[in-house]
Design goal:
heterodimer; A: 235 residues; alpha/beta; three-stranded antiparallel sheet; 7 helices; 24% strand; B: 280 residues; mainly alpha; 11 helices; 71% helix; 0% strand; disordered N terminus
Chain lengths: 235, 280
């Protein structure tokens, strides 16, 4: 199995003289894998995601990654003046796809996130969970093999999160995308990921494989054990 | 083996009329509206041109009719509108240049700040002397109103640029939205609420300045009333100076009505419309 994302000895500093917010970072994410990075605020996990997205460049080291990726943002980052359909189509059009393909992708991914009946609505007319679904559809419409997710569920209430976890796993199963998600909820990471990378002070401390069958339940003692393992690593 | 190139679609009028754009597909209605807007613009430009080439001045404040007050209202509105359109066209690119990055902003913002703090009426006599040398009385007034409006829009739009969320900027990079596409589809819509707010402030400032800007004779050595531009501002000042209370009151009422109609018919709907461009 190939690795669409490979970090080799990456360091990142925003300052001169350098103060590294990410250092000695090496990681290989497998094709079709659901990888989750967890860590406290300011540990550098967002910087890692931004480097994969091409928003930031590493100070030293190399990153092998696809030229373009889809990304879901914590704030959903939808354009409020565009309808749901136009938001999704916008991302596809920016990839210079032919118009029939833009329409086909928009319809396909809106259906996949169960929002095909809401194409004419504006983001402000939707709930937080629905907006995040639009964000997912938009990221998928780019047709990249990699989907990045920047704490996509952190602003949502737990009940909505449960629903979205199930939907996201279904989408992942259908699209076979490689997903890299960042989160500061250990339970979320264990619910969703194949492997969880634990970051602390800009370093990747440990990678914990989650070998539990899906769907995963928080009531499962093995689930609790995995969460405890991650928590111990971070303390 | 390389796939054979797809033949280019044959040009037809029907295909041209319904060609896809970034956010919509053009229909016949779009083209009809464009033609109508173009015709209206041409008419406005011709009317303004004729009006500016032959400005109707005040010759005798004692012979002002109700029709003159109406003409004065239309004249003042024309001047304000022209100054405003010029201010918008100048202010948005200027604000974009100043607000494009923190570094540029650090350099240019203090300069803009100094320029905007120079009172517009302080250099009005110089402006009048310059324009009257070319018999461009109307342009003197429009220029001063333009300058008084400009900075309101510039600074409000600069403030608006700073409210674009970081996630939106990141999304633009991730989704490959750069250059002009970024300007048209993200930056410009994002500042719409601020252009509207800035415009409101600009017009408020314009109404204040127009009262002085039309009274050119006070800035011209040995000036006479005939050098004033017929408008609500000049009527107000000249009728007050000439003791024509009824003309003064009629002019004041006309100005209040014009401001009220503008507020109800233009600014309130625009403010409501601009809400859809706001980030939560």
């Amino acid at each position: 199995m190939g690795s669409p994302i490979v970090f080799t000895d990456v360091k990142k500093s925003y300052e001169s003289p350098p103060v590294f917010v990410v250092h000695d970072f090496s990681l290989s994410v497998n094709q079709g894998e659901f990888f989750c990075l967890v860590g406290a605020s300011g540990c550098g996990k967002s910087t890692v995601l931004k480097m994969i997205a091409g928003i930031e460049t590493p100070s030293t080291g190399t990153i092998a990654k696809p030229d373009h990726v889809g990304m879901v943002f914590q704030s959903n980052a939808l354009l409020p003046w565009l309808t749901v359909e136009a938001n999704v189509a916008f991302a596809a059009r920016m990839q210079k796809f032919e118009e029939p393909k833009v329409k086909q992708l928009t319809a396909k991914y809106l259906k996949m996130v169960h929002l095909d009946a809401f194409g004419g609505k504006y983001p402000r007319e939707l709930s937080g969970g629905m907006r995040q679904r639009v964000g997912i559809a938009r990221a998928l419409a780019v047709e990249s093999e990699v989907l990045l997710m920047d704490e996509p569920f952190s602003a949502l209430d737990p009940m909505i999160c449960e629903e979205l976890y199930a939907d996201l796993l279904e989408i992942w199963g259908l699209t076979k995308k490689t997903i890299v998600m960042i989160s500061h909820h250990y339970e979320e990471a264990v619910t969703l990921a194949d492997r969880v990378g634990i970051m602390k002070d800009g370093e990747l401390k440990q990678i914990v494989p989650i070998d539990l069958p899906r769907p995963r339940s928080e009531d499962d003692p093995a689930f609790t054990q995995q969460v405890k393992k991650i928590r111990t690593c971070l303390v | 083996m390389k796939a054979p190139a797809k033949p280019a679609a044959r040009f037809t009028v029907r295909r041209y009329l319904r060609r896809p754009h970034l956010l919509y597909e053009t229909t016949l209605a779009h083209h009809l509206v464009s033609v109508a807007v173009a015709i209206v613009l041409c008419v406005v430009i011709v009317v303004l041109g004729v009006h500016f080439a032959n400005p109707k001045n005040i010759f005798d404040i004692n012979k002002i009719s109700f029709r003159d007050v109406l003409t004065a209202s239309a004249n003042t509105f024309y001047r304000m509108l022209l100054a405003y359109l010029l201010a918008v066209v100048a202010a948005i690119p200027l604000a974009m240049v100043i607000g494009i990055s923190a570094k540029v902003q650090r350099l240019l913002l203090p300069i803009a700040d100094i320029l905007q703090s120079v009172p517009v009426l302080a250099f009005f006599p110089v402006v009048v002397v310059f324009f009257t040398a070319y018999h461009a009385f109307e342009l003197a007034a429009v220029f001063v109103i333009f300058v008084s409006m400009l900075w309101n829009i510039v600074f409000t739009v600069i403030g608006g640029l700073q409210t674009i969320p970081d996630d939106i900027k990141s999304a633009a990079i991730v989704f490959n939205v750069t250059g002009l596409e970024k300007f048209w589809y993200i930056t410009l819509p994002a500042v719409v609420p601020f252009v509207v707010t800035g415009s409101l402030l600009a017009w408020a400032q314009g109404w204040t300045v127009v009262i002085v800007a039309e009274v050119l004779h006070t800035y011209i050595p040995h000036g006479t009333l005939s050098q004033d531009l017929l408008g609500l501002g000049s009527l107000m000042v000249d009728s007050n100076a000439g003791g024509q209370t009824s003309v003064f009151v009629a002019t004041l009422v006309a100005m209040i009505l014009l401001v009220t109609v503008m507020n109800l018919a233009v600014w309130q709907p625009l403010l409501r419309f601009s809400q859809r461009f706001r980030f939560d």
